[in-house]
Amino acid sequence: MLMQSQDIFSEIENQKNEMTQALMELIHVPAIAPQNDGEGELKKSEKLMQILNRIGFDKIDRCDAEDERVQSKVRPNIIAHYYGENTEERLWIITHMDVVPQGEESMWTVTKPFEPIVKEGRIYGRGSEDNGQSLISSVFAVKALKKLGIKPKRTVVLAFVADEEQGSTYGIQHLIKQGLIRKDDLIIVPDGGKEKGDFIEVAEKSVLWFRIRTIGKQIHASRPEKGLNANRVGMEYALALDKLLHEKYPLRDKYFDPPESTFEPTKKETNVDAVNIVPGEDVMHFDCRVLPNYDIEEILTSVKKLAEQFEKKTGAKIKIEVLQKSVAPKPTDANSKIVNMLKEAIKTVRGVDAKVGGIGGGTCAAFFRKIDVPAVVWSTIDEMAHQPNEYARIENLVNDAKVFAFLATF
Ligand SMILES: [Zn+2]
């Protein structure tokens, strides 16, 4: 067993240049959502199909979704199978082909977003880390096995999906709707992680953003009794709300980093232009990241109830406007098979004990958790996603492939 693993690892090492080339080829082809004036993933999927066909998977299926907004009318999803000794057990490695737009072009100082280059062991370009690195790692993990004539213990299914950056309706959600996923499938989504590759994400927090608009009465600052200071009411309300939320929802869960829900008063809008004006309006915002144990609607009710109390007490109007609300699904069980397998793979390949926990969320894994299929998010990344000068480290490209190959074979 150990001998075999060593052979696989050196084969993957030998593929380093080929992996680098393949990732650069993919970065060359933008795959941007129609919401951002892009043409979707079809061209990129064709490039990827060329790479996959050279390797020789046992079966490659398509599960494309129709989308009128792109010229091709198609959002492609590719599902490549490499059969194992046990074809009943399936290890899915799910990566996405789409990328976010380049953003401000002048901030790309190393290279242009879709003209990848290699510099100091890193591949620069849009989509290099998010999610090209893991996509190529998964492909070359299979390629190494194939080349060595090793049949994996379980069937490896590589899914390359569309539309992840815009909510996955035409990507992983489409696949799930077609009934392609079984309850006992082992799911890994390498689309998040930490620098050392020692963190396995099994849970995410719910997100709630809201705006608080407090309306009083503007007046000259020398006669405050004739007006109603919205700034004062707004501040008092915000501080009271801050206290209430922290006291009412204090639960800590050690799986999360940080372990508690966060309720932060953040953006405050400019009110009046002069020092001697009592503001008649005050606008501020809260960013809340809430443990999945709590009901977001219940929290929102608390926010509104306190606002009503302040309205009665002060005579001001307080309006709450929700800007973002996403409910986290139930966490993946930290003792599920895929979590334990991945822990063992990381331990064997890297010699480190991985921590299991929850962080930001917002990946394809959420859709599996929603249907009660355990899914983990793991990869080794510098967290360069969506930034200018995005890069992927070549060593991560190679070393994550070893973990994937190990996962398939032990
Ligand atoms: Zn991503």
Write the layout of secondary structure elements.
Layout: H1 2-14, H2 16-27, H3 42-55, E1 59-62, E2 65-66, E3 74-75, E4 78-82, E5 86-96, E6 117-119, E7 122-124, H4 128-147, E8 154-161, H5 172-177, E9 186-189, E10 199-204, E11 206-215, E12 219-220, H6 230-248, E13 262-268, E14 277-278, E15 281-290, H7 296-314, E16 317-326, H8 337-350, E17 355-359, H9 365-370, E18 375-377, E19 391-393, H10 394-409
Parallel strand pairs: 5-8, 5-9, 9-18, 10-17
Antiparallel strand pairs: 1-4, 2-3, 4-8, 6-7, 7-19, 11-15, 11-16, 12-14, 13-15
Helix pairs in contact: 1-4, 1-10, 2-4, 4-10, 6-7, 8-10
The structure holds zinc ion (ZN).
Account of the protein in words:
The chain has 410 residues and is of the alpha+beta class. 34% of the residues lie in helices and 24% in strands. The protein has a six-stranded mixed sheet with strand order 1-4-8-5-9-18. It has a four-stranded antiparallel sheet with strand order 13-15-11-16, with helices on one face. A hairpin with a 7-residue loop joins strand 2 and strand 3. The longest helix has 20 residues. The termini are close together. The model has no long low-confidence stretch (mean pLDDT 95). The site of zinc ion (ZN) has 6 residues, from helix 4.
